[in-house]
Each structure stands twice: as structure tokens, then as C-alpha cells.
């Protein structure tokens, strides 16, 4: 019994040792395809690549290599996988030869290979391979192109979640040449992994010549486009492709191309309406003038957005205008945008300066907004305000004749000359209430370089003698004092006579200064005439 147990144990150990020694292995080899990680392989559009899967048994046993029946082969309809099942003395190969088309929509499939030997207790090993398709950034089908002559550092950019039209600033660090290469430039391409499509590309502004072993940094900036290939929850790669021409004597002019990739997070929100275009016409106006504003908005969200409207606002210019409402379809429909137009007026009292007028789009029931500022230059006030504000000390001349009086009223001539734009100017006398009485302020419309003389009749209070002072003020149409002059009057001398004037001016001044007296005299004459008329009627009846 003891011998039997020992023999059984020996058989088990032999079988176990044989099984262990015969465990097969699976290896891969590639041609014109690249690695995208452990057991991950990249084929390129319009480039025929070859992936060889080899099963080897360390004990020399016969090996069967097969593709698991559950593997989704529909994604490889254009591929030639030979043989799907291979059996023979090891090693045994299965070769995947494939040239994806440029319209191939492919995010990656899994291929599960299984190798089984024919040992007494069969040994099995599996290996899952990921197959992806990328655009051919480097013309791998061209024999004159080398794809290993650049090395890269990192792709440096913010790891934020980007939204549509957000700006992305990327620095491609340490692009190093492994030979002398001229006209080296870097292109960034955004690639949708889920759909297998290139969204768009952007090129660096500079090109540089790099010697072998030399490296440089490249800066590229772009905005996330509102492209239909930007989905609601897709995954994206950002490719940095360096290209240049070989400067080696034996390969001069041949293209050199390599790339590096990194993931980038892009979101497309359910509700998001943005301003895609906004402008002011004209951009320079005068106060009191009108200007037009055009604002184009676009729904870049994944849901329809109803009740969208635009406002134009500026607190200083007292502008707060609202557009009509718009119903916008989601981002990938044709009727997802609208343009709001406004005609607005600059207030007449607006100051000369640059204004930042805000255009605001309201969406999601008015709870969300996006905005943009527009520049409007107001170069000067309107003509009415200009006439008022241009009335300065330098734009008015004031001339006053000194006068002496002896207890009686005298006339004080005040001459005003307008050196500014056509406007109404007024003159008033102040600071004489404690020693004399005079009339109210006098006004007249004066054209540029026109003069006029106002006559103020001053009656000194009884018993006032000696030298007295007063002030003459010139006021603009807006009521602002723009010119002031002091007057010194010596009382107790001869009365200063009013200067001679022409007949028409004299009549004008007489009626202007004595209008109340003339009305009283006119009333008296009318009463006398009425009495004489009544008397004549009564005397006639008596006869």
C-alpha cells in the first residue's frame, strides 16, 4: 500500500512538472504600427500594418492558437486575420494584416487570443490585445519618411475641463532632433477617440532649425471648436506632431516626422448659448448720435434652448435694451443660432471717452448668461452740448466802461464778444445790492466773433458816495459762469452818459429798457381817446 501511494505521488509530480514545463507563451511583433500602451497597438489610416501574434510552447508541444469566439470582429471587417485558428508544432503564428480606410469610425476593439498545448493536462494561456486606429500624421506609407528622428518632453497645458470656445494654451516641451533637421514646426491635432475622427489642427507660429541633439519648446494656442465631432461625453487625445526636413548629406530633404499625445478633457453642457460674433457700427460717434449693435448667438449645448434673448447695457450711457426672444435648437441642428440687432442713441450729455458696452445673452429661463464687451468711442458732445461746454473763459471777451455818477441813475455799458460757437450769452451784475439797484440779467444770441453791448441802468441808494464795486458775470446757455470782471465806480461825479447809438439801435434799446412805461402811456392815451369819443356822441344827441 505504501509503495502504491509513492508511485501515485510520483505520477502526479511528473504530470505536474510536465504541465508546468509546457506552459505556452504569446508574443507579438509589429510592422508599420505603433504601441499605445501595454498590449495596445495602433494602426494608421490608409497605411497597411501587420501585427504578428506568436504562440510558443517551452516544452516543444503542439500548440493551438485561437481567437476567442466572443471577440467583436465586426470592427475588423476590412482586416485579414490569418489564420483565425492555427495548430502545429510550436511556434505557431497568427498574422493580422490591415489597412484601415480614412473614413473608418473606430475607437478600439479587444482581441482575446488563447494558446493551448497538447500536454496530458493541457496548459492554457490568454492575451487580450487592444487595436486602435489613428490618422496617419506622418505619411508612414512613404519610404522616404522616418518616424523616429524626434524625441519629445511633455505637453504642458491646464488639466481643466474645457468647454466650447475655451482657449487652450499648449507648450510642447523639449522637441529634440536625433539628426540635423531644418524647418522644424509643431502641429497640434485634436482627435476624438470614441469616434476615431480628427476634429481640427493648429500649427505653431515659428519654425526652427535643430542640430542633432538640440531641443526647443514650441507654443501653440487654439480655441475648442464648436464642431459636430465634439460630443457630450466623448474622450479626446491631443497630438503634437513635429515635422522637418533632413539636413543629413545622404537623406537631405527627406521628411522627418514624430508625434506625442496626451488626453484632454472637453465638456459639452446641456444648456449653453454663447456669443459668436458681436460688433458696433460705427465704433466712433458723437454724443447725441446713434449707433448700431449686432450680436450673433449660438446654442452649443446638447439640448434645445427656448426663450433666449440678448441685452445691451451700459450704465454710464444709460443704455439697457432687450431683444426679442429666440428658440434655438441643439448644437448639431441647423437652426441653432440667431442675430439680434439694435439701434441705440448716445445721450447728449455723454462725456468724451471710451465706453465698454456689454452684450449679454440670457438662456436656461434667464438663469444663465454669457457676455462680451464692445468698445465704443465717444469723441465729443452733440452740437447743443458743445455750444454750452465750449463756452469757456477763453471763448468770451468782456469790456466794461468805468462810470461816475452824482446821485442820479447812470448807464453802465458792458460789451460781450463771443469767440466760440453760436450760442446765447447772458450778463448779470452782482455784489451791489448794499449800495444800488439795477435791472435783471440780459441775454442775446451771438454768432461766432459777434459782439453786443448791454446797458445796465444803476440807481445808487440815497446818500451813497465814494468808490463802490460790483461784479459783471457772463453766463453760458447752460447757466455756467464763464467770465467775471470787477467794476470800480466812483460816486459823486458827473453822470456818465449813454454812448451814441444809431437810430435803429437807439429805438431798440429805448423800447427794450422802457417797455413798462410805454405800456402805461399807451393805456392812458387809450382812456383819453375813449372819453373824447363818448363826449362827442353825447353832444351830438343833444343837438
What do these coordinates show?
- Helix content is 12%, strand content 50%.
- By secondary structure, the protein is mainly β.
- The chain is built from 4 helices and 38 strands.
- The radius of gyration is 49 Å and the shape is elongated.
- The strands form 8 sheets. It has a 6-stranded mixed beta sheet, with no helix packed on it. Strands 13, 15, 16, 17, 19 and 20 form a 6-stranded mixed beta sheet that branches. Strands 22, 24, 25, 26, 28 and 29 form a 6-stranded mixed beta sheet that branches.
- Residues 9-13, 15-21 and 493-514 have low confidence and may be disordered.
At a glance:
By secondary structure, this protein is mainly beta. The protein has four helices and 38 strands. The protein starts with a helix and ends with a helix.
* Principal-axis shape: elongated
Strand content: over 45%
Low-confidence stretches: 9-13, 15-21, 493-514
* Continuous helix count: 4
- What structural category do the secondary elements indicate? mainly beta
Q: How do the strands of the widest beta sheet line up side by side?
A: 2-3-10-9-5-7
What is the share of helical residues?
A: 10-25%
Distance between the termini: 189 Å
| Radius of gyration computed on alpha carbons | 49 Å
Number of beta-strand segments? 38
Sheet of most strands: 6 strands, mixed
Amino acid at each position: 500500500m505504501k509503495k502504491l501511494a509513492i508511485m501515485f505521488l510520483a505520477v502526479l509530480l511528473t504530470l505536474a512538472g510536465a504541465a508546468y514545463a509546457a506552459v505556452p507563451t504569446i508574443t507579438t511583433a509589429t510592422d508599420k504600427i505603433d504601441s499605445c500602451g501595454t498590449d495596445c497597438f495602433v494602426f494608421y489610416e490608409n497605411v497597411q500594418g501587420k501585427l504578428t501574434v506568436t504562440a510558443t510552447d517551452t516544452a516543444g508541444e503542439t500548440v493551438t492558437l485561437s481567437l476567442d469566439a466572443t471577440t467583436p470582429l465586426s470592427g475588423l471587417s476590412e482586416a485579414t486575420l490569418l489564420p483565425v485558428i492555427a495548430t502545429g508544432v510550436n511556434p505557431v503564428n497568427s498574422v493580422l494584416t490591415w489597412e484601415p480606410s480614412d473614413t473608418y469610425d473606430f475607437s478600439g476593439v479587444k482581441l482575446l487570443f488563447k494558446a493551448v498545448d497538447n500536454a496530458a493536462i493541457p496548459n492554457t494561456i490568454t492575451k487580450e490585445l487592444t487595436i486602435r486606429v489613428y490618422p496617419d500624421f506622418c505619411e508612414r506609407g512613404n519610404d522616404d519618411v522616418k518616424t523616429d528622428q524626434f524625441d519629445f518632453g511633455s505637453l504642458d497645458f491646464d488639466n481643466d475641463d474645457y468647454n466650447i470656445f475655451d482657449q487652450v494654451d499648449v507648450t510642447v516641451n523639449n522637441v529634440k532632433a536625433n539628426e540635423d533637421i531644418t524647418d522644424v514646426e509643431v502641429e497640434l491635432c485634436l482627435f476624438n477617440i470614441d469616434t476615431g475622427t480628427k476634429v481640427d489642427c493648429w500649427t505653431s507660429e515659428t519654425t526652427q532649425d535643430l542640430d542633432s541633439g538640440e531641443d526647443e519648446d514650441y507654443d501653440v494656442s487654439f480655441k475648442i471648436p464648436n464642431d459636430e465631432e465634439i460630443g457630450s461625453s466623448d474622450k479626446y487625445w491631443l497630438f503634437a506632431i513635429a515635422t522637418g526636413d533632413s539636413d543629413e548629406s545622404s537623406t537631405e530633404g527627406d521628411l522627418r516626422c514624430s508625434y506625442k499625445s496626451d488626453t484632454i478633457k472637453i465638456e459639452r453642457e446641456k444648456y449653453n448659448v454663447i456669443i459668436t460674433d458681436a460688433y458696433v457700427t460705427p465704433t466712433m460717434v458723437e454724443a447725441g448720435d446713434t449707433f448700431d449693435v449686432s450680436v450673433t448667438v449660438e446654442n452649443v449645448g446638447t439640448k434645445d434652448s427656448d426663450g433666449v434673448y440678448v441685452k445691451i447695457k451700459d450704465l454710464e450711457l444709460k443704455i439697457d435694451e432687450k431683444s426679442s426672444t429666440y428658440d434655438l435648437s441643439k448644437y448639431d441642428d441647423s437652426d441653432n443660432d440667431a442675430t439680434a440687432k439694435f439701434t441705440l442713441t448716445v445721450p447728449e450729455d455723454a462725456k468724451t471717452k471710451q465706453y465698454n458696452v456689454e452684450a449679454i445673452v440670457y438662456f436656461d429661463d434667464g438663469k444663465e448668461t454669457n457676455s462680451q464687451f464692445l468698445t465704443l468711442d465717444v469723441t465729443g458732445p452733440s452740437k447743443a452740448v458743445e455750444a454750452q461746454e465750449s463756452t469757456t473763459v477763453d471763448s468770451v471777451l468782456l469790456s466794461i466802461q468805468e462810470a461816475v455818477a452824482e446821485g442820479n441813475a447812470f448807464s453802465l455799458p458792458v460789451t460781450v464778444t463771443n469767440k466760440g460757437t453760436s450760442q446765447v450769452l447772458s450778463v448779470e451784475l452782482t455784489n451791489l445790492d448794499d449800495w444800488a439797484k439795477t435791472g435783471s440779467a440780459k441775454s442775446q444770441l451771438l454768432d461766432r466773433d459777434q459782439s453786443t453791448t448791454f446797458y445796465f441802468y444803476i440807481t445808487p441808494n440815497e446818500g451813497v458816495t465814494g468808490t463802490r464795486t460790483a461784479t459783471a458775470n457772463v453766463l453760458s446757455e447752460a447757466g455756467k459762469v464763464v467770465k467775471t470782471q470787477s467794476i470800480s465806480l466812483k460816486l459823486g461825479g458827473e453822470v456818465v452818459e449813454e454812448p451814441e447809438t444809431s437810430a435803429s439801435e437807439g429805438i431798440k434799446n429805448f423800447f427794450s429798457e422802457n417797455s413798462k412805461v410805454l405800456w402805461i402811456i399807451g393805456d392812458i392815451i387809450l382812456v383819453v381817446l375813449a372819453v373824447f369819443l363818448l363826449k362827442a356822441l353825447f353832444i351830438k344827441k343833444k343837438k
